[in-house]
Amino acid sequence: MKKIILSILIIIAILSSCKLKEDASITNPTDSLKVTSIKVISPNGGESISEGSSFQITWSGTGTSLVKIQFSADNGTTWSLVVDSLKNTGVYNWFPVPNIISNQCRILVASLDGKYSDINDKVFSIVRNSNKSLKIVSPKENDQWEAGSAKEIKWFSSGIDSVKIEYTTDNGNKWNLVSVDKKNTGIYYWEPIPNTPSTLAKVRIMDAKEGLPSTESGIFTILPEPKIKVLSPNGGERILSGTSRKIEWISENIENVKLAYTTNNGFSWNTIKESTPSTGFYIWDSVPKVNSQLCKVRVYDAKDGEPNDVSDSTFTITNQITQTLEITSPNGGEKWQAGTNQQITWKSSGVANVKLEFTTNNGLTWNTIVDQLANTGAYEWNVPNSFSTQCLIKISDAADGDPVDQSNGNFRIAPKAELKITKPNGGETWVAGAIDTIKWTSVGVENVTIEFSPNNGTNWYTIIDKTPSSGTYLASFTSPSTQYKIRITDKENGSPRDESDGTFTVIEEPKITVISPNGNEEWYAGSSNNIKWKSSNIENVKIEYTTNNGASWKLITASTPSTGVYTWNNIPDNISSLQCRIRISNAVNGIPSDISDENFSIVTFGVQLINVTKPNGGEQWIAGSTQVITWDAAGVSDVKIEY
User: Fold this and answer.
1) Which residues of 278-309 are buried (b: 16+ CB within 10 A; e: fewer)?
2) Which of 320, 421, 461, 550 is deepest in the core (most CB within 10 A)?
């Protein structure tokens, strides 16, 4: 009976506990049941906000401690980040409002995981600020930027559509163009930073249209571009496992390097040294006990892995000590014709790479055939035009010259007719109408026929049917094409024959035509005017002017991109002349060039000039006849004529 009563009491206690927990969950909800909500309050549609200004973004939100804010200028098609993480205070001071002029703007406020968010109800506008301003944010004074790297040039601005960006390496004595007409987004990715080390670098940004406003950064440093080059082992070496080996390299602007090696031609790498000062060498103690002909070393900046360099070719690590080499062909008595391909063969053991040489004077002097060659037992040799009956082949270990062997007896190299084009042989660029030289080498050929193809050999046309095989011939072409080839043939036998290994290009003749000023214009000293021209196949031009009808010329700019327009700012105040002309020429070599067709005037405000051009002395006019009196004038509206 007592057990039954005890059981009932336990059940009642459990039920009471459950009820209490149930009530507790109703009156004291846990954090897991909190509702998360976000609502954008401002901007919420219809506002007009000036670029570069400050604007308070406001919202209401619960259930999340951090939020992020995004902005769209195309009604939500694309979004850019305003701030990636912000305490959920319900307000954010947006400064500066970006230089993105649009009437399709929206703001999005969201929890960091993006599960909860809200977008303002209607679009608002970002409008152009009537007050122009510019301020560079980056680079900052005393910054250090590495040549070859990419950095962000940043600025605040208002009232400006596009900007021109320049940099200097001499504290402003000379400025160099970075970007000529960059849309004003407030940021420019400068990549790569030029390799012009300087401790006096600056960046300058200005209104691309008017030049003002203009602002400069503080002085910062451009560090030299870091470089690494592996010197040894760099391919072809034979290294005995278990020994020590010096790894050598050259580097610039790098403090410490990491060293690694591969035994499978780069498929995987093993660390030699995690970090060591970049002194140019490191002693590799106890080369690993492996047998591989596919070894390389890699040296790279220990800081971030860039730059790095790898052995140009593979080398060998081996534990084989016994080495032998034996020439099998040519081994005496053979007759090989110059110009033919012949197999040099040998037997060997324990040698990774070989060096092949030949002599034509029975070993008095030797000529290298190949300095580093994988030891396959055979090499196809294009026999040279070295005619002799006292020829030998020598083979040796490319790593250290030992072991070595040579042909047991002499063989003979006999002549063979040969012809080889050397220019144009592929990749050259000729100018239409210009005379250039076709070049070739030949042996045993007296006269040749020279042809050309403008379509990579589909059709051939004769340049000269018969000319002595002197090795050169002057030619020119009139039609531009990227598919030109030259073919030269032995006139008498039709063989040998050779054609350009690849196609070369004939481009349109470079041209320059001055458009403005081209005669009779009136420009004023101290003003700025656009010099205009047309050009083709010219990258940069030189611009000069004369005030004495070409008797002498003065420089305006030594080199500027051939865009067709150049603004001549602040025409010198000391010019007053009716005999001015502009000359524009190729900045590289001065050819071609063009000059204003007629004279124009440059005068100082308030100065009047008149120059009688006809009659000007020595003429004979018949009484009673009608003659034309001509003159040049500037700053004069009406003239009086007397005789």
Assistant:
1) beeebebeebeeeebbebbbbbbbbeeeebeb
2) 421
User: Is 106 in the same domain as 148?
Assistant: no
Whether residue 503 sits in one domain with residue 434: yes
Question: In CATH, what number is assigned to the domain containing residue 114?
Answer: 2.60.40.10
281 found inside a domain: yes
Distance CA 627, CA 201 (A): 65
Q: First and final CA of the chain: distance in angstroms?
A: 155
- Per the structure, the count of domains in the chain is 6
Q: What are the tens digits of pLDDT across the range 347-405?
A: 988 788 999 999 999 999 999 999 999 999 999 999 998 889 999 999 999 988 889 99
501 and 423 together in one domain: yes
Specify whether 91 is located in the same domain as 139.
no
- 3-state helix/strand/coil string of 175-189: CEEEEEEEECCCEEE
CB 231 within 8 A of CB 248: yes
- Answer yes or no: pTM beyond 0.85: no
Is there a contact between 581 and 518 (Cβ–Cβ < 8 Å)?
no
Q: What's the pLDDT band for 2 if we cut at 50, 70, 90?
A: very low
> Which of 312, 181, 176 is closest to 234 using CA atoms?
312
What residues form DSSP beta bridges with 281? 248
Residue that finishes a domain, picked among 270, 299, 318: 318
Q: Is 358 within a domain?
A: yes
What's the token pair of residue 220? 């910062």
- Calpha distance 14→8 (Å, rounded): 10
Write out the two tokens for 495: 């063989």
- Tokens for 215? 């602002």
Same domain, yes or no: 168 and 249: no
Q: Which amino acid is at 368?
A: T
Task: Please say which residue of 94, 127, 160 terminates a domain.
Answer: 127
Please identify which residue in the block is written with the tokens 């030299």: 224
Q: Select from 531, 534, 517 the least CA-distant residue to 580.
A: 517
Identify whether 636 is part of a domain: no
Q: Are strands 447-453 and 461-468 parallel, antiparallel or unpaired?
A: antiparallel
- Whether residues 383 and 423 share a domain: the answer is no
The whole-angstrom separation of Cα 349 and Cα 161 is 74
DSSP string, 271-289: EEEEEEE-SSEEEE-S--S
Q: Cα 37 from chain centroid? A: 50
The three-state secondary structure class of 562 is: coil
CA distance 388 to 392: 10
**Of the candidate ranges 32-46, 79-93, 259-273, the one whose mean pLDDT is the lowest:** 32-46
37-74 residue pLDDT tens: 899 999 988 888 887 788 999 999 888 889 999 999 99
d(CA 167, CA 193): 10
Domain-embedded: residue 306: yes
Please give the radius of gyration of the chain, using alpha carbons only, rounded to the nearest integer.
41
Do 588 and 519 reside in the same domain of the chain?
yes
Task: State how far the Cα of 585 lies from the Cα of 564, in Å rounded to an integer.
Answer: 12
Q: How far does Cα 405 stand from its chain's mean position? A: 49
What is residue 243's three-state secondary structure?
Answer: coil
Q: Which domain holds residue 160?
A: 133-223
Report DSSP state, residue 508.
P
Nearest to 143 by CA among 219, 253, 254: 219
